[in-house]
Amino acid sequence: MAKEECFIIAREGVSGGTGTLSLRLFEYIKQEGGRCVYLCCENNAPQNYALMERVVDEIVCVQDISFTKQFDSIKNKYKSFCFLTYSIAEYVAISTLRNKCDKIKRVIYYVVHDYAFSIPPSLQLNKFRRTIIPVFQRLKYRKLVSTLMVNRSIVFMDDISLMETKKNLRIGNLPSIVQLLPINIPNLLPEDFKVIKRHKPFTIGTMCRMEFPMKGYVLGLIDKICELSNVYDIRLILVGDGPGRVLVEEKLNCLPTNNRGKIEYIRSLPYSEIGNFYSQCDLALGMGTMLLDASINKVLAVPVRSYTNDLVVSALFLDKVEWLLFDKMDEKPFEGILSYLLALEDDEFNLLVERQFLNVRNAYNINDFIRLLQDNSVGANTLNSRELWFFKMLNKII
């Protein structure tokens, strides 16, 4: 990235997986001598916010979803800008700014969820709503997303998010960009995996922002640990905060004493202590960046299904590391995975951990993502004023 160009991420808050993803990108760009700024509307994760302040050149937090106030405060400090956004609303807001400021050279929308433009199949809706909502979604998003694909302004984090988008919006064979999540891979040697020792009790961990129904699997996981801890020597470390925290705490407080003792709940954890969390885990359950963080911290991972209050999982992450979300074609009973892992000898278990790490190392590389940000053809053609006006009108109507 040219030194005179400032890389900006515009996002509503600083929490969750996209918060840690942003930190990862900023750390790398700063190491390479680049400039970066974070624009947000609220500080919804103080620990992430404090870390962000130490990494970026500036962080501007103002309650303005148009990002006008935030951008106005920094636009005269840098020669040009490349923006990254994680939602269609943020992309439209920054594209509107770009039409008023030619210093914004590129705007990229990075799709980080497979249901960005579709209804999760596990979401409880009646037949009428499940039929009519996709019709409205197609009316609202089809032309917009198609334009972004043709313009090379939208990037999908994996094949699942691309396939779900094309399927739900009924988009044909348009050019598309898939770029796996950026991650710094440490240099680990074979002997680093031979010394892994499983904990007693066998420890399962999950870490997420408590947003329901999307992260409803947490509730199902609590139930499953209570059930299986009567059969297996296991415990759970649960980390997370957010709007669903009260529901989780109420559920934990209602558990019998013997079950409650099997679950450790940590409300929040600084980004700098993620490694310590994984050092206490033998198996990690989650989605997105958590699967990658587990892999580079030498912990086996299992993807979970979103938008359900049950624990629904697919096979071990190690054999399909390009899929960062639940694979409905590869659903497995969690107890079957657990019993299989517990029955393994230490050297067999450690070989699985090493295989997962090697597969992640071969598939993911932060340099590939940085090259994408440096590609002047990506994000250069944003929506014009007429296209933005049309979408905003649809957004008010639908």
Q: End-to-end distance, in Å?
A: 39 Å
Mean pLDDT metric: 90
Low-pLDDT runs of 5+ residues are none
Q: Which CATH architecture of the largest domain would you pick? A: 3-Layer(aba) Sandwich
Work out the helix count. Answer: 16
Major sheet: size, sense and barrel closure? 7 strands, parallel
Provide the helix percentage.
40-55%
Describe the structure.
By secondary structure, the protein is of the alpha/beta class. The protein has two domains: 5-182 and 365-397, Rossmann fold (3-Layer(aba) Sandwich); 190-363, 3-Layer(aba) Sandwich (Rossmann fold), CATH 3.40.50. Helix content is 43%, strand content 16%. It has 16 helices and 14 strands. The protein has helices at 16-31, 46-55, 68-72, 88-98, 127-150, 159-169, 190-194, 217-228, 245-253, 257-260, 274-279, 289-296, 334-343, 346-363, 366-374, 385-397, and strands at residues 5-11, 35-40, 58-61, 80-85, 104-111, 154-156, 177-178, 202-207, 234-239, 263-266, 283-286, 300-303, 313-314, 331-332. Strands 3-2-1-4-5-6-7 form a seven-stranded parallel beta sheet, with helices on both faces. A five-stranded parallel beta sheet has the order 10-9-8-11-12, sandwiched between helices. The model has no long low-confidence stretch (mean pLDDT 90).
